[in-house]
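Hi P.,

Sorry for the delay on this. The queue was packed all week, but I finally got your sequence through. Input first:
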Amino acid sequence: MVNMGIIGLGHWGPNLLRNFCNHPDVNVKAVCDKAPDKKKKITESGIKFTQNCDEITAPDNGIDAVAVVTPLATHFKIAKTALENGKHLFIEKPVAPTSAEALELIKLAKKKNLRFMVGHVFLYNAGIRFVKEQISSGELGKILYIHGQRTNLGPVRPDASALWDLAAHDVSIFNYWLDALPENSTANGSALLNPDVEDIVNATFNYPDNIKCNILASWLHPSKVRQITVVGDKKMLIWDDMSQSEPIKIFDKSIHRSEMPEQIEGTLTEFRFSIQDGQVFIPRIKQCEPLKEECNHFIDCILNDTVPLSDGVNGYHVVTALEAATESLRRNSEITEVKVAENYRS
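Then the structure:
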């Protein structure tokens, strides 16, 4: 059995608690939250409740692994203490407020030989994994660009911008699909509700081979949208997380420069293109709860001593991209390099 402690029962924490409690190889030993009104429900289930996270991260307390589901600003201190005291670590995205702090946690976990996993939950989504297969197999051809939209009316975060709260998901997806890291970023946005906390952000991440990945992230929007379009030179694809019945649509559509003999360079005929407008294929995607898959994966990595898919390095790569986009925001959309430490480029 893996004895677990969970720190944070806010918006997302209860979902992690439910999944870890339902895992046959997990014993949730203690839960921490600052809100005292959470105590009754927790203690009724036989789990220890505390308002002091040090009780969860303390050495020699019988807890093997800790899940950190707290505001971003608190991540580093809690995570560092947990690792120093020999706890395997699951931490919600983004892993830390800075890439320097993320690197410190990675090195500490390696030194202590502990499993370190970041909650990039969409990497455990069946639709996202299906798209990865389509891209890797060449079914879509050469990827030209990817466009994402992640919007809703709230929840408004005072501690992290829409870029860090929402677009973090899409950066992790882009990296996973392309098996690459962005080279630079440009971004613009608006802080309409809270000063210096952008609630609307439009960011572009430029990947090798001239692939541009754009994301619109907003919590000031009338409808909830979780959608990504992938455009290849053979086919195009849309992933729609809000559709239970048709999360993936593959379009047999493309545009090619016409090879008509009358084309003459330097004239209007040079720019004739042929459009392929074929059928739409809707594959059957086996539905599962991504968070359950993610929690199961974390426990499997502990029990089998394997590296998580969304390990600390994976989380670090996302933070470096978010840092570059944030710097671009502050510099009036200036192209900003994504800085990755030399030993962590892959």
